[in-house]
Amino acid sequence: xxxxAAPSSVDDDTLFDLRYARAEGDLWPMYDxxxxxxxxxxxxxxxxxxxxxxxxxxxxxxxxLLDLTRDLEPDWFQKPDRIGYVFxxxxxxxxxxxxxxxxxxxxxxxxxxxxxxxxxxxxxxxxDGGYSVMDYRAINPAYGDMADFEAATRAARARGISVCVDxxxxxxxxxxxxxxxxxxxxxxxxxxxxxxxxxxLPRQYERSLLEVFPETAPGNFTWYDDMQxxxxxxxxxxxxxxxxxxxxxxxxMVEVMLFLANKGVEVLRLDAVAFLWKRxxxxxxxxxxxxxxxxxxxxxxxxxxxxxxxxxxxxxGPEEMLPYLGRGEHDGKEGNLAYHNSLMVxxxxxxxxxxxxxxxxxxGTHFPPALTNATYATYLRCHDDIGWAVTDEDAGALxxxxxxxxxxxxxxxxxxxxxxxxxxxxxxxxxxxxDARISGTCASLAGLERALEEQxxxxxxxxxxxxxxxxxxxxSFGGIPLIYMGDEIALLNDYGYxxxxxxxxxxxxLHRPHMDWAAVKAARAQPQSAAGRVLGGLTAIxxxxxxxxxxxxxxxxxxxxxxxxxxxxxxxxAPTGSILCVFNFRETWQSLPTGWVAQQGVRDGHDILxxxxxxxxxxxxxxxxxxxxWIR
Length: 632
Fold this sequence. Notes:
Layout: H1 12-35, H2 41-57, H3 61-72, E1 84-87, H4 89-93, H5 96-109, E2 113-116, E3 120-122, E4 133-139, H6 146-158, E5 162-168, E6 171-173, H7 177-183, H8 187-190, E7 195-196, H9 200-206, E8 221-224, E9 229-232, E10 239-241, H10 247-261, E11 267-271, H11 288-304, E12 309-312, H12 318-321, E13 337-339, H13 341-353, H14 357-366, E14 375-378, H15 392-397, H16 402-413, E15 425-427, E16 437-439, H17 442-445, H18 448-453, H19 457-476, E17 480-484, H20 517-525, H21 530-546, E18 556-560, E19 567-574, E20 577-584, E21 590-593, H22 594-599, E22 606-607, E23 612-613, E24 620-623, E25 628-631
Parallel strand pairs: 1-2, 1-17, 2-5, 5-11, 11-12, 12-13, 13-14, 14-17
Antiparallel strand pairs: 3-4, 6-10, 7-9, 8-9, 15-16, 18-19, 19-20, 20-25, 21-24, 22-23
Helix pairs in contact: 1-2, 1-11, 2-10, 5-6, 10-11, 13-14, 19-21, 20-21
């Protein structure tokens, strides 16, 4: 674009032009490669130019100041004081006004990032937990309205808390206005979706497609009599896949992003990004065009609202996940955050097997020590099920059968495997492959529910240790640790979902309980109770994290071989020195040679978590069951 004359002071137009010049090379080359040859490409491109300037001019002054602050501190989301918390608004606080009243509770834990689980207006009835959106510009009326939402984001921002919301970009609800117009036969809106007059092409696509929900939504296409057309529906019948090969869809989603950014959203969680681009003969997941689209979307935000970062939700294998954080030509230009699904899977796998070999191999083989302008969202669980993303290749490298190990994990965590400490429920059982996923709260999967039922004090101790070890792991690995609502007070499985018609078919509601504020009060009043010990222990871990600059996400995470199957270890390599993080995955005492610790560049044996020196009789550092130590 043409250069402006040098101004006497930096005004809004100048700032916009500077940011445009900075990011246009990441936007338009991707756009042109995606839409070259499309008859509407030039027209939409011109409209996008105008759209971005319009939303910049409408951006509130306090958010423009935040943009400038983030430009001067581009690593803000990588700092160790970033600590996340995830909740459904209604289950956490009733509504958005209730959220405002609970922000001090989050601040007391050190939370600086909150994810409002799907809060945009969903379709009535079954909405896939809110991910079947019928209006991107309206809030779920059960939570309040857009004014309430803006008030909540403003109150969070005043406390230094960034708000994340879900933006479902692969599909809309069939009740969305675009879908209604398509269903009525409007050709412009029919082209917003992927529809077919007969099943010739759907049958060809199905040969290579996978089923997302084989139990409840088999197949990837749905026939509608009133339209006399098949519609691509990857997830559910009521969720229509968008046609991202149409540049108008790109325009619409950029406008939605900028609209939400101007309402105070600081993190856009882009949902189901692996499915955006369709190509015959493939799984239609993680095609190269997905990454072009995501780079271009991020560039649009960097121009208009650089305070906003993108979290890309792609729950796929390690080698497929990393490109969503930018690899190759997209390095440093795509997502700022992506879920470290493998870390979660390997944590639960090592807990069940009492062996960290697969964990060390997988995390050490597939993930680079550091990333460019990006990091992980680390977590032990989320609103979704746990899928056992253990590849046959990784299992085979350790002499294991991938299928047998995945089956063992499902049986262990649904509690049917002999000697299991866990209580969970199967989800997404695939009868053809034998694979199944698992639902359950962190505390119930870690053994607390069973231990309390059996009134086994020692088992309670071990379950609490597992919970705290896991949170010490995600707090130190590198990235933003996400605490799922209720895990800080060890909430157990909620079996009441079976009595709710819209939930009973979906075991994931097992681990979506309502927040128990009476339990919070009791945990504070009784710090020696199970809930009190978890709340106190987790708060101490998060406090230690925020005070440990070596845990900045830009510093390398170096996976280490300890030679001891019970132990998982990594070093955080900062210029000021290394921190050695070690975790014992067994209920028995282990030890670590001081000589090995010294080889990792750590010599004084000070544990950051306990703020004390580690004893080493006979040259061995003793590690109790489920120990977690950060050694400086």
